[in-house]
């Protein structure tokens, strides 16, 4: 017994570090007498359950059968009578087998009696007559044992996301578990759940494609319920935009109750009625206005409470306007109705009083015997702050600002001690001002942790519910949210990212966890900077290089995700695509598109023909967005998620997505770009002018040779040379116009040319530079580029290896009326390829790429 106790303590300490499952490292592929065998030679152990056990426990036990099949290749046997010397016994305190073990003091019933949703998993020797040993999973209640069953599923290698993210299962011939007693204790938060919301068009389309229904039926919801339970949640606000959980399929509520999921209705759907139940019969029912239509609305309320009888449903009380609006108001116009606040408060007091009376009459019990919640959402918080209160037994549900920042927390001892307790309604997804957030996860890991820690520290521990939109692609934030809801105290600033790593280890394997978690964390951080729906060409500063920096960061992250994707075993790639790669690909592409649009507008304004190339990039990225969505919907996982990734995100002009489809961002093109050459005027910045050679103001050709742009030559943009080289240079020249402060009287001009050798004249090749109206200097750039002993190691090898020659000369600036100077460059020999010109009046920095080009625009030459 002492050995088991010490082992349990040790494993509990390990569990504090392993945040994704309770007890990391207790299973092994090695079999030995001091361990309990789960699978031997691909044959899993037998599961024993009381045939009169709760239906939800029975469902979980059958799922455990399937999980053993996923791991071993053979489905476990489930029996109602002991028929083997080694068993896995599962049950609540009502199970005759668990009761017998408690009565015989083979497990400690005091660990479970009176507890909430607690499991105990322990190995017992000789638990029942004829049984040598058993792994016992006992629960204080139905959800307690269900959580224990799914804990074992995770221990044998089945991720909670095996279905919803296609996480593969590693086949095992043998598997055992360390002897000991294991538990996760009781949850810190009573109601822990998710809200499926804003479900059109993605979730609705996927459900239609998958189930052939225009609504979520019990088959769909059973999969959602299973996921919630595997993640140790217990609560759901069902989708309600166009669906009605209760009315669409009567089996929905029955399935939830049987499986152990508590159903609630949203902050604007009181008395266990879905908004669609009213909206579909609005012509029959009349106005959603309690002051004028009380009789009909009371009847509507009563029907909801009667229908919820016999369930664990959490009843929302209070009332808002028709369709998630303020009472008597329109969404976004709350401020216009502030003068009505006092009247609305009086009306709400009446509504809540009558709702409580209806609850009592319909249930046959005192109203405080039926769990209730009041959502203090948007304008209702104003009413609360003005003094509106609900009875003591009602949970008061606070809210964030829809963007992950809690709006209010209990203040002072009186509020903190409210008997009904407090809850928090949090958002990963949102439809509303200033802009919808419906596509990808935009909540940084650290932000969620910081705000939820704050929430829990202030005693908010009755309800944690989070708006998750379509459910996908919010897989990781959902996991973190529900794990924190179970035990917020586990999570600190020091170990927070351990959770991310453990999540990735569970989905992709231990050897991939570090890199996958890094990418997941970084893309969450990047998305938290600005949501994709709010991102546009104006978001970042194009002039300072900020836009290029953030776009390059995302492109780099995409490359890193691709690199890891290619190292994965094929069976892991669908899961990785969903959880990591697609969000990174899609956002990197969006950043590239808007950066390209910003460059297109900038260059078009400057009359630069390169604007057209950036317009092409915008079109290519826009097209790629559709291709990425197609791959997610139609190709990934064999098309299993068809319709889940069709969210609009390109084309917002207001807060909502009332545009028919993604819209190509506005781009501009310069007509006849091949004729749009020369005419560049540069502006000095930071005491220097940097010019790419092809961005001249005017080019004068020789009689038989012309200035030719050699694309991509050199370290940056291109090279400029008079060609063909065999023809005379004549008076060919390039001129460069630039704006330089009038008080500058002298500059240093740096000219960067290709490291051409002196093939034409052993004395070297020359060019001249000089400002119009001023002194001209002749530069010989390659006289010492030869293999003479004095040059070969000091000059020749280093220069030809670097491929360029930079020469400089000091030049006085002639006086000009407007500060515009014209630098003229003349080659005197053939084969000179000019690459870059730098005019320095105090700001030149010696960089390998010779600095970034200065601001410029094209004017008529």
N-to-C span: 93 Å
What's the helical proportion of residues?
25-40%
Structural class by secondary-structure content = alpha/beta
Shape: elongated
Q: Which stretches are poorly predicted, pLDDT < 50 over at least 5 residues?
A: 1-20
Task: Return the average pLDDT rounded to an integer.
Answer: 94
Determine the CATH topology of the largest domain: TIM Barrel
Strand order of the largest sheet: 13-12-11-18-17-16-15-14
Q: Characterize the biggest β-sheet.
A: 8 strands, parallel
Write the layout of secondary structure elements.
Elements lengths: L1 H16 L9 E2 L6 E6 L2 E2 L1 E3 L6 H18 L5 E2 L6 E7 L3 H8 L15 E7 L7 E7 L2 H14 L19 E4 L2 E2 L8 E6 L5 H10 L6 H13 L4 E3 L7 H4 L2 H9 L2 E2 L11 H5 L2 H4 L8 H14 L7 E3 L23 H23 L8 E4 L3 H7 L9 E5 L12 H5 L5 E6 L17 H13 L5 E7 L5 H12 L9 H13 L1 H20 L16 H22 L5 H33 L4 H26 L44 E4 L4 E5 L5 E3 L5 E6 L6 E6 L9 E7 L6 E9 L11 E6 L4 E5 L8 H14 L1 E9 L7 E8 L6 E7 L15 E3 L3
Parallel strand pairs: 4-5, 4-6, 6-8, 11-12, 11-18, 12-13, 14-15, 15-16, 16-17, 17-18, 19-24
Antiparallel strand pairs: 1-9, 2-3, 2-9, 7-8, 7-10, 19-31, 20-30, 21-24, 22-23, 24-29, 25-28, 25-30, 26-27, 26-29
Helix pairs in contact: 2-4, 6-8, 11-12, 15-16, 17-18, 18-19, 18-20, 19-20, 20-21
Quick tags:
861 residues; alpha/beta; Chitobiase, domain 2; TIM Barrel; Methane Monooxygenase Hydroxylase, Chain G, domain 1; eight-stranded parallel sheet; 35% helix; elongated; disordered N terminus
């Amino acid at each position: 017994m002492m050995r088991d106790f010490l082992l349990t303590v040790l494993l509990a300490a390990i569990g504090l570090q392993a945040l994704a499952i309770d007890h990391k490292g207790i299973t092994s592929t090695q079999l030995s007498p001091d361990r309990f065998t789960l699978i031997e030679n691909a044959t899993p152990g037998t599961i024993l359950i009381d045939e009169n056990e709760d239906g939800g426990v029975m469902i979980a036990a059958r799922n455990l059968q399937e999980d053993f099949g996923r791991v071993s290749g053979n489905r476990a046997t489930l029996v109602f009578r002991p028929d083997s010397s080694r068993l896995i016994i599962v049950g609540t305190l009502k199970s005759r087998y668990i009761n017998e073990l408690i009565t015989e003091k083979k497990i400690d019933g005091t660990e479970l009696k009176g507890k909430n949703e607690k499991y105990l998993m322990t190995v017992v020797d000789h638990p029942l007559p004829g049984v040598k040993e058993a792994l016992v999973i006992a629960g204080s209640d139905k959800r307690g044992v269900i959580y224990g069953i799914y804990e074992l599923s995770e221990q044998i290698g089945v991720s909670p996301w095996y279905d919803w993210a296609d996480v593969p299962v590693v086949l095992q011939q043998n598997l055992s578990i360390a002897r000991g007693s294991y538990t996760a204790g009781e949850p810190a938060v009573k109601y822990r759940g998710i809200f499926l919301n804003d479900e059109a068009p993605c979730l609705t389309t996927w459900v239609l494609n998958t189930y052939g229904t225009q609504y979520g039926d019990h088959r769909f919801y059973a999969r959602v319920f299973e996921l919630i339970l595997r993640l140790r949640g217990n609560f759901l606000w069902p989708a309600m935009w166009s669906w009605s959980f209760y009315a669409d399929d009567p089996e929905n509520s029955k399935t939830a109750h049987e499986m152990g999921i508590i159903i609630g209705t949203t902050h604007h759907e009181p008395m266990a009625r879905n908004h669609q139940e009213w909206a579909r019969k609005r012509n029959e029912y009349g106005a959603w206005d309690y002051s004028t239509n009380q009789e009909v609305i009371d009847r509507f309320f009563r029907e909801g409470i009667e229908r919820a009888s016999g369930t664990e449903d959490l009843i929302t009380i209070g009332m808002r306007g028709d369709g998630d609006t303020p009472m008597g108001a329109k969404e976004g116009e709350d401020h216009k109705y502030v003068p009505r606040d006092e009247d609305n408060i009086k009306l709400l007091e009446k509504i809540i009083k009558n709702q409580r009376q209806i609850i009592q009459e319909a249930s046959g019990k005192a109203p405080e015997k039926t769990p209730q919640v009041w959502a203090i959402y948007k304008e209702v918080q104003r009413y609360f702050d003005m003094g509106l209160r609900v009875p003591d037994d009602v949970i008061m549900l606070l809210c964030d600002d829809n963007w992950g920042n809690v709006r209010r927390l209990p203040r002072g001892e009186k509020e903190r001690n409210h008997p009904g307790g407090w809850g928090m309604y949090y958002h990963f997804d949102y439809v509303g001002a200033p802009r919808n957030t419906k596509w990808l996860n935009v909540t940084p890991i650290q932000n969620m942790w910081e705000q939820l820690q704050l929430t829990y520290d202030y005693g908010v521990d009755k309800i944690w519910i989070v708006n998750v939109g379509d459910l996908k692609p919010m897989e990781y934030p959902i996991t973190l949210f529900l794990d924190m809801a179970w035990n917020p105290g586990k999570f600190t600033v020091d170990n927070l990212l351990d959770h991310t790593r453990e999540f990735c280890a569970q989905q992709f394997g231990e050897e991939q966890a570090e890199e996958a978690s890094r990418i997941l964390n970084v893309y969450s951080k990047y998305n938290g900077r600005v949501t994709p729906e709010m991102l546009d060409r104006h978001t970042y500063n194009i002039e300072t290089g900020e836009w290029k920096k953030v776009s390059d960061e995302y492109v780099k992250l995409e490359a890193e995700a691709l690199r890891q994707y290619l190292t994965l075993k094929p069976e892991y790639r669908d899961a990785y695509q969903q959880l990591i790669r697609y969000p990174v690909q899609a956002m990197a592409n969006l950043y590239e598109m808007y950066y390209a649009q910003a460059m297109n507008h900038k260059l078009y304004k400057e009359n630069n023909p390169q604007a057209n190339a950036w317009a092409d990039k915008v079109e290519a990225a826009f097209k790629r967005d559709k291709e990425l969505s197609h791959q997610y919907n139609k190709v990934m996982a064999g098309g299993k998620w068809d319709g889940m990734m069709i969210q609009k995100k390109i084309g917002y002009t207001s807060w909502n997505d009332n545009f028919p489809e993604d819209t190509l961002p506005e781009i501009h093109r310069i007509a006849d770009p091949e004729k749009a050459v020369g005419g560049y005027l540069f502006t000095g910045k930071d005491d220097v002018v940097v010019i790419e050679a092809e961005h001249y103001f005017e080019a004068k050709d020789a009689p038989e040779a012309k200035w030719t742009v050699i694309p991509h030559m050199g370290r940056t943009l291109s090279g400029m040379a008079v060609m063909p080289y065999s023809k005379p240079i004549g008076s060919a020249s390039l001129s460069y116009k630039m704006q330089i402060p009038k008080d500058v009287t002298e500059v240093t001009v740096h000219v960067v040319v290709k490291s051409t050798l002196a093939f034409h004249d052993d004395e070297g090749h020359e060019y001249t530079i000089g400002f119009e109206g001023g002194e001209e200097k002749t530069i010989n750039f390659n006289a010492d580029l030869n293999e003479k002993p004095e040059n070969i190691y000091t000059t020749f090898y280093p220069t030809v290896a670097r491929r360029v020659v930079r020469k400089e000369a000091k030049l006085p600036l002639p006086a000009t009326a407007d500060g515009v100077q014209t630098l003229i460059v003349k080659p005197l020999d053939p084969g000179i390829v000019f690459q870059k010109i730098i005019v320095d009046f105090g700001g030149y920095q010696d960089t390998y790429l010779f600095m970034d080009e200065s601001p410029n625009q094209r004017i008529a030459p």
